[in-house]
Amino acid sequence: MVKFSWCYLNSFVDCTASATILIPQLNLIVPLGGSLGSGVLAFVFPPIIYLLTFRSQLAKRPRAVCVSVIFLCVSLAAFGVISSVVGVYMSVKQIVEFYSHGSGAMPTASPNFVHWNNTV
Fold this sequence. Notes:
By secondary structure, the protein is mainly alpha-helical. 74% of the residues lie in helices and 0% in strands. The chain has four helices and no strands. Helix 2 runs antiparallel to helix 4 (63-101). The protein is flat, with a radius of gyration of 23 Å.
């Protein structure tokens, strides 16, 4: 049986509280991490792992099948890389816009967005 240590729980709570204090606008950082991680994990790694795993079995198949499978895998990986780059670009652009305004209000395209000091 694994013995639970309160030290782990306390360190987790301390790290969470520190991140909350150090990053005032967490809603700007989370999409950046998501676009970096999820695109690679969902679209880039699986086709690469598939090609590496079934490399010997693909060699036994007809040439047209091998070419089509490799084309699909490369296309999927390229889509993942492009979507990750676009996501990172949009997240960085949003962060730069937020900090360049200096008003503390998140820029948005919605005309019904209510700022803290304004009324509807």
